[in-house]
């Protein structure tokens, strides 16, 4: 008898990956046989880190998780899921506003493909205010973000911005 492999994907830009992202990744990795981290590539958007740098940072931060795989794709997430036999989307939320947005996305994704479910995981309270955008913003004022991002990310942020502590 063949055992069904449960695959999920957690997609985002991860510019940069934060401790909040890692919280969701670590917890979701315990729920599935395979968790893919889908790094979105948007050629029209200029991020702090290149696509390759973001992938490298995520790989560095998740290397201890045997069932996590880093991937990238173009187009609709539900199409990627269908092509790769993934039936669950993992989404992290920090606030009520995130819940509302993710609920709309979950309904749209379900409309596009009723075979794909969305699992919404609330981040751990101590990370509930962290966002990649906020990290980059406070770094412009030389703020201390060492408790908000993994060490490898902090080192790269310092190198990239000549700031941060």
From TrEMBL:
SUPFAM superfamilies: Nucleotidylyl transferase
Residues at which substrate binds: 13, 45, 77, 91
Leading EC class: transferase
Positions of the Cytidyltransferase-like domain: 9-137
Residue(s) at site: Transition state stabilizer: 21
Domain of life of the source: Bacteria
Pfam families: CTP_transf_like (PF01467)
Keyword tRNA-binding included in the entry's annotation: no
Binding-site residues for ATP, renumbered to this chain: 13-14, 21, 92-94, 102, 127-133
Pathway(s) where this gene product acts: Cofactor biosynthesis; coenzyme A biosynthesis; CoA from (R)-pantothenate: step 4/5
An annotated Gene Ontology molecular function: pantetheine-phosphate adenylyltransferase activity
Catalyzed reactions: (R)-4'-phosphopantetheine + ATP + H(+) = 3'-dephospho-CoA + diphosphate
Cofactor: Mg(2+)
Subcellular location: Cytoplasm
Keywords per UniProt: ATP-binding, Coenzyme A biosynthesis, Cytoplasm, Magnesium, Nucleotide-binding, Nucleotidyltransferase, Transferase
Main location: cytoplasm
EC code: 2.7.7.3
Family stated for the protein in its record: Belongs to the bacterial CoaD family.
Subunit structure, as described in the record: Homohexamer.
Cited function: Reversibly transfers an adenylyl group from ATP to 4'-phosphopantetheine, yielding dephospho-CoA (dPCoA) and pyrophosphate.
Name of the featured protein: Phosphopantetheine adenylyltransferase
Organism this protein belongs to: Romboutsia faecis
Protein's gene: coaD
